[in-house]
Design a protein that fits this description.
This protein is mainly α. It has a single domain, classed as Multidrug-efflux Transporter Regulator, Chain: A, Domain 2 (Orthogonal Bundle). It has four helices and three strands, in the order E-H-H-E-E-H-H.
């Protein structure tokens, strides 16, 4: 068996998320569970890296939807301008 155990600083480095987020996700069943090692605990490296890979896969599947949404938004703005609607002025909101 070639499963390496990771301590919290290593998990944070690999995942790029904070300690509290890791524990929250773990509690909700959305992150690999720790292994108790007496007074401390550790995560199985393979499981942590698999979790990261799954997040990347989800991003890659969802990416075309985000592009389509952006394209739909641009098209709606274009139609609004064609109908004579004034462009949204973000600076006016900030000044108000």
């Amino acid at each position: 068996m070639d499963d390496k155990l990771l301590r919290l600083p290593q998990v944070i480095e690999i995942c790029g998320i904070r300690r509290t987020t890791i524990y929250t996700l773990e509690k909700r069943g959305l992150f690999p569970r720790r292994i108790a090692l007496g007074a401390t605990s550790a995560w199985v490296e393979r499981e942590v890296r698999q979790w990261v890979a799954e997040r990347i896969a989800q991003r890659d599947v969802a990416a075309p939807e985000r592009v389509a949404t952006g394209a739909k938004l641009r098209e709606a703005r274009k139609r609004a301008r064609a109908q004579g609607a004034p462009p949204a002025d973000r600076t006016a909101k900030a000044a108000a």
